Amino acid sequence: MIIEDLSEPELALWEAFPAACPVDLPGAPVRASVIARMLLGARERAEGQTPRMYLSGARITGRLDLSYAEVQHPLILTRCDFEEAPVFTGARTGLVDLAASRVPGLQAVDAEIGGGLRLEGCVMDGPIRLGGAHVSGTMNLSGTVIHADLAVHADGLIVDRDLLFANAVIDGEIRVAGARIGGTMTLDGARVGRSGGLSLTAEGIVVDGGLSCGHGFHSYGELSVQDARVGRRCVFSGARLSNPDGIALNAERLTVEGGLLINGGFTAEGEVLLRGAHMTGSLSFAHATLTHPGGRALNASLMEIGSGLRATPGFVATGEVFLDSTQVRGSVNLDGGRLSNPGATALSLRRLGVTGRLSCSEGFSADGEIVLINAKVEGSVEFHGAALSNPGGRVLALWEVITGGGVDCCEGFTAKGTLSIRNTRIAATLCFAETTIDGDLHLRGVEAASLKIGPQTVLLRAVDLRHTRVGVLDDIPDRWPAQLQTNGFTYDSLEAPLPVQERLGWLAKEAYQPQPYEQLAAVYRRHGHDEAARDVLLAKQRRRRSGQRLGVRLWGYMQDLTVGYGYRPYRAALWLAALLLMGAVVFTVHQPPAFKPGEAPPFNAFLYTLDLLLPIISFGQETAFGPRGLQQWLAAAMITAGWILATTILAGLTRALSRQ
Length: 660
Hints:
This is Membrane-associated oxidoreductase. Keywords: Membrane, Transmembrane, Transmembrane helix. The chain crosses the membrane at residues 572-590, 602-621, 633-653. There is one protein chain. By secondary structure, the chain is α/β, with parallel strands linked by helices. Among the domains are: 1-146, no CATH class; 184-330; 565-658. The protein is built from 9 helices and 59 strands. It has a 23-stranded parallel beta sheet that branches. Strands 31-33-36-39-42-45-48-51-49-46-43-40-37-34 form a 14-stranded parallel β-barrel.
């Protein structure tokens, strides 16, 4: 290079380069070719010094092209105004620092940049292309402004330390698919993307030190970290993602070696997709708002969560929250959350596995159906204080669930719609104390340690308890509604046996079935209340005859009147005593004549009456004396009464003994 060809600013830079002295040339033009030649060895080194290009404030004319060059010196061009986009394609360089410069773009595909790439505060009117590049230090774009459809194209980028976009304004897409970041990737405070397009495409990225898209971060369009692997933790706390007609966050099959934080004021317009994601720590949605009306606000099926899912307090979702086949070590806490998907599924938890408890309590509300089917919860399932609403449909479908604790729908729980629990095993109490349900309550095929209905329980529509089994029935009989089905409902004991008439009123609420009466009688016998058990079985026979044919009903009335179907044996004794007394008096006053006067034994009116009343036992009086006239009709009536009494007593005793 001929020194005489250099302008005054270029000459100042020429003199400063060997000693690495900074040169500030506000607005002065400097040819890019001069800079390139110095970096490539046109300016000899001074002995004992390390050259460095350190220029600020200049206007760089022409194109700075270092393609496939090997540059051993740091390149620092800060606050400069580049006429054309620099090109570093395939180059091997030291530090490249263009901080606070205005640059039309940057081409550095397959470049190896040692010591870091600093573009902090730059304004770029064209894209940055870094596909396959390797930055051995930190790559810093904090505060950078880029205007381009594909603002950063860096598939396969390797950054040994941090990749920083904090407070950047990226009017276009950041694409870093398959990149490898040795430190952290930070976009806190950044604004990225364009509406309806893509904001961050980081599919398959590996970030060893953690990913942070935290407070102040705005994404316009789809943000994708699909198949990414993130060390330590992944943070979206306070972020705002907007893609109303599509996916706002695509984190499908994301792996986080730590926690995933989507909380702290996070908002998303569009679907949040976490299907198949895996995290060793916890997942938090506290103070998050997800909005995707008519679609899935959160699609998080097939997740594996290592340390609990927490969406409390302040979690709000408009659209379906879909957590099917998700496995959680720890608890799922949705206390105080507000879900809204009217007329459809608000919360889907099919095949959920939870090693702790599932809690939707303390002000939790859902407008739409909650589906918990074929799930296993090792702790309790809690809805106390929750408000569920789905008028005309189901509010809760809890089917084929196994719980290691209770199902708590107590303490102010309200439901507007049908509540259905089927084929579910509950290790502790199924509780409806202080509950209001304005809809049918279906409890079919349920197994529970106890069932609690309290004095403040309000059940406004039908209740179905068929084929349900509980250990202890702890209820208030008059709290059950008029429409009640209990056929096949079994329970081992009653918390409070109560007067038997209250229990009979409970059974009278439904059409006659024999099993509920047999069940209640068996429980009374286990409690030692044999008299109450007999009252229940007598009530059963009385309700049964109302549906029988006339002849059978008349025979039933006779059994009831005489011996109470065998459950009132003292009545037979009273009837026998009354007939015996009447017969003894009548036949004493008017002794019947003997068949053979000379051979007849002495007449005894008492024994003669016994002979008439008892159809099998004979005292020799009936065969020796024959009544005449009215006495004959009286004797016939007593014989008939004796047969009836004997038959009914035998049938009643047989029935009673068979129940012992």
